[in-house]
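Project standup — Tuesday

K.O.: blocked on the structure for the chain from last sprint. Re-posting the sequence here as requested.
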Amino acid sequence: MSEEQQFYADLRTCLDGFLKQAPVAATYLGDHRFDHELGSYTEESLEERRQWARRWLAVFTDADDRQWSQTAKIDRTMMIHVTRRMQRSLERLRMEYRNPNTPVEQALNGLFLIAQRTAVALEQRLANVCGRMRQLPRYLAEARAVLVPSEACPFWAESALRFARAGTRLLPLWPLAAAPFPGLRSDLEKAAHLLAAFARRVTPTLDFTPG
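H.V.: unblocked you, prediction finished:
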């Protein structure tokens, strides 16, 4: 295997690892292997993401592309920028610890993205929606455990409140809610209440009055 071929093998491994860590992003990017998952918010999983970014940034930075095709050189440069940006986000910006809106937005996006996949059979979409909703208690509990409220700015807290409020109103009225799928309606209602409860707990200084 040439060095250029090894680079593309590494790139595929790198991207596959990212998609497994970020199932909502995978759905958005067109990889639907993880449509039933929300991902993990534990400290251990966040550390794994940091290590992932460090490792792949080092791999792509250290690669010698002098004998590569122009396309491969461009791809290498792109992956250096992508992994460096992700490392900065995970290690310096630390939004998972500072922004209470991130898990709320991710959860809602994870549900609505599946609903938009009209080319997929309705029953499969509903099964994936229920799969993600049933992970909400665990997902939001993990997000709350790592959140540092003293580092959350008022704008982020207000955004979490607004997104959760929107979920409280919209999920039970979602067109999919009328579909004849076991447990769907109750799962939607539980998801709405979970999002609202999460926002109330992480933004205790803000009023959370529906309406």
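K.O.: great, moving the ticket to review. The chain has two domains: 1-93, 95-211. DSSP finds ten helices and no strands in the chain.
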